[in-house]
Amino acid sequence: xxxxxxxxxxxxxxxxxxxxxxxxxxxxxxxxxxxxxxxxxxxxxxxxxxxxxxxxxxxxxxxxxxxxxxxxxxxxxxxxxxxxxxxxxxxxxxxxxxxxxxxxxxxxxxxxxxxxxxxxxxxxxxxxxxxxxxxxxxxxxxxxxxxxxxxxxxxxxxxxxxxxxxxxxxxxxxxxxxxxx
Length: 181
Fold this sequence. Notes:
The protein is of the alpha+beta class and 181 residues long. Helix content is 19%, strand content 44%.
């Protein structure tokens, strides 16, 4: 549950920024905190991100994506001067809250967000099982249909039996390269 800002209480607050300027806001705010001597009132600035697996051209790679585009988290004690420093950082459009009073996020919300951000290796649930019919969506066998013959969830790999030249041939693929039919 969001809580109203309590003067003198350290908490996490959400800043709204222009989309695409989250990193810029975080950098500028950190510089302003240092140059204006606000380290005792503004503690951490965080752009929430998570790692995701993508496939392009048959190759698997990990990208970091913003969880909440257009938002930056700030751990601070709200006072008139700390509010002013944060609020007047370039590309900050305001605090999330009612009027000029920022609303903090709860400890549970922040723990859930940290957990989502802290996962080192992205895990995806493989939603196919041995025997499922699939269409290959990427790689040299794109648009072929086949049947799952093995699933290696730890590596994110599957074996698909593809009918080529009148015989079933096993092909090892990344599970993101197939779609269940």
